[in-house]
Amino acid sequence: MDTNTQKKKLPDRPFYLPQGETTSSRIITEAKESLGNRTGLQAVVTKRPCTPRDATRSLFGASSSRTPENRPPSSFSLGSRHFDGSDTSRPASRGRLQPINHTPIFSTLSEEKPKIPTEEEIDSGLLPPKPPSDPNKVQRGKATRTRLQQSTSVESSLSSEVKSGLETSPSDGNQVIKNADESVRRVHSGPKERTPIPVEERGEGDGREMPHRAPSSASVRSPPRSAESRTGSGGTKRTSSAGSTGRGGSAGRREEETAEEALFFSQNITPLLDRMTDASSKKDAKRLGQVTEELYSLLQKENLLGRSCKQRTTILKSIFKLLDVEDSRIQLKLARLILALKVTGTNLLSACKLVFKISRNEKNDPEFLKGDILDVLMDTLKSTDPFNASEALVFCIGSLKLLTGNSTIVKQLVKKDCIESLAILLNSINKTIREGSEPTTQIGNILIQATAALRNLADAGSSRERLLGCQAIESLCLIIDSFTSDGDLMLNISRIFSKVTLHTDCCTALADYPTSYKSFVSVLQKHQHKSDVVVRVSFVLGNMTAKNEVARLRLFQEAGSFDILLALFRFYLEQDVKNQGKEVKKEVTEDGSTVNKTEDVLIKVIRVIANLSINENVGPVICSNYQCVDYLLKVLETKDVSSSEELVLNTVATINNLSFYNTKTSAITTHQVRVLEALLKLVLANNMEAMVEACRVFANLTRQRVVRDFLTEQKIDRMLVTMLDSGNREVVYISCGVLINFMVDEEKRPMLKQEHGIRKLVEVLRDFSKTDWELASLVCQILWNYSGKITSSNDCFGQQESQDLMELLMELLDRDSALDLSFKEDEEMTDYFEETWTEQFCPVAEQLLQRIETHQSDLEPLENPSGS
Fold first, then answer.
1. Cα 428 from Cα 422, distance rounded (Å)
2. SS3 state at 335
3. What is the pTM of this model?
4. Which end of the chain is flanked by fewer CB atoms within 10 Å, N or C?
5. CA distance linking residue 635 with residue 633, whole number of Å
């Protein structure tokens, strides 16, 4: 409730007057809201921390703690020169070869001039054949027969020492053969050092490139190849087209292009490429975009996207040359085509950078809703290895993160299972870390983009069900454990949780996760002075403990949890005291409002303490903590409710919860005078909520006579009688709760009648009883305590009040009359009304009615008998 707004609307209305008309539905709503507030303990509600306004779209926000050398830049130049026309790069293999423990025998050959083998030596298979002078010349006859003989007899012909040398490799995984002139060559070196074999001499069904020489280590063990080069569709072995160079490329490194495929390329694809080049040279952006769409549609229709197209490299070379175009719409179409052709290495990185660069401009968002660019980005996300192409993945997910700032795109990405895909990525990273990999800065950069995207996706309507379904909450908890020191990442995760824990299902899932409490305590301990992290983690813990009794106990029992809460309380309270009198810079939020960050942290931390104290085992322990109570009182003593309303109200609510426990070691009882003095300021303030919260504390503290005497001196008892005129159900309820205690003291009872309290209580009974039997019971208890020394009902209550009270009680004790509600649309509330009428109201009302009737004089004066 905004008190300042009310003041503007109703400047002349006294605080105790009713606000608007009371309807049946409003009575039910108010009654439901009051059910959890009448036990003496209450969970504190607060606003979710506001996200600061980010004016720029970047990989990392302006407040990021990452240094430039530890993060990719958000701004960069990019053009055709950044793309590799051959597209031969491929992810590095993660397999490791066995280290060598023996020097190959060939490396110990003498340094004499190599001897040219004779024909007999070649035929015997003991020595490798002489390579042809022309590598491209096909040798048949004896050379062919020799190669076939070598494949079957080489192991039996060579000595065991030679075999040993062939089966080992140097420590770097490549065999080294030293020839007679001491020149060193790696067997697994690049294609420039290999001699291609004519097609006719290759083994059937094998498209690999074989060296045209005698069997060496390369013939004993084939060089490792990527998964894509090992198998094609249907499991048939074929060479990856990644290494093909088009029509002019090496035919020995890919499947041969059929005549039909070559004809299709020349008749359909080549003209489109030529038209694209022509449009680019003429700077006709519109035409270039149209032809690019035609090419994409053709390749998609013919199933030539991906890496299956024989002329893929030729197409990519042509596209790369067009990337200097300045129109971002055309760049996006070209980038989509490049990504759809499944580029790798530097080309993948450059393509993802290009998409990210385009997505930085909010004006380009509509372009991402055209065609299937979002599908291509999602496919890139799913197919990119976070460990072998980490930087490319950073820019790919970074683009998705920026696009999720658009609510329309968010809905599309949710439908395309973006949440599930990001959850799979998180799970993959967690699994690799569990297997022993060390968390790296680059993986952290990926996770920052992924969690920032999830933070925005969490606002979608079906996000909660999806997050729960793909176990994203559990994955985020594991990431907290692995990257606790990463402040940027912890901020993003806390933002996600601060959104989803507003809902009971997600809050319960997080509270049930076994290590969540330990994880959050570790984050608070590691980032104590990072207010944007602390405020959100505290908010999450406040949500977890608001309605979950088990969560309260488990959090408090977590090692060091309450100590860190007190440390945070002390640090930010000291910061707030230092800032008093100074003009504090407030943070501008997304909705344009401002917030004091220090106060916001205090609000959230105090809320956690308030919610913890609801637990009957935890509450007495916190109540006995003098340091905690001292900090709470300092807040009330240094802050004003008019300028820091939420902070003050949360603090009073916490003191109310602690004052509920009347233990011998209670710090509230020890400092009760200080507590009362602090609360008196709130009672006198023109703030209804502050007054109600203060009176809640009075209801607990007035169990002690010394407190009742102190408040009587301050005329608080008279103020409470005045509050009975309020139309606010809770205000009246709290006032009655305190007046019950005051009526215990006989010398304080006359005040009630003097202030017309009896009449006010009868009116309260009449107005609220049938919709609030708890309140009606309190009214009867006040009148019972008040009439403890009754001799005459009329003298005690007043003649009219006594008569009205007696009639009203008889009516309310009649079941048919009392429970004949004018509204029965809520079965739960109807059952509740009947239960409270039977168990709480009737017992005390019957006794009060009997007392009134017993002391009510029905005797009439006798008339003189006639004629006496």
1. 10
2. helix
3. 0.74
4. C
5. 5
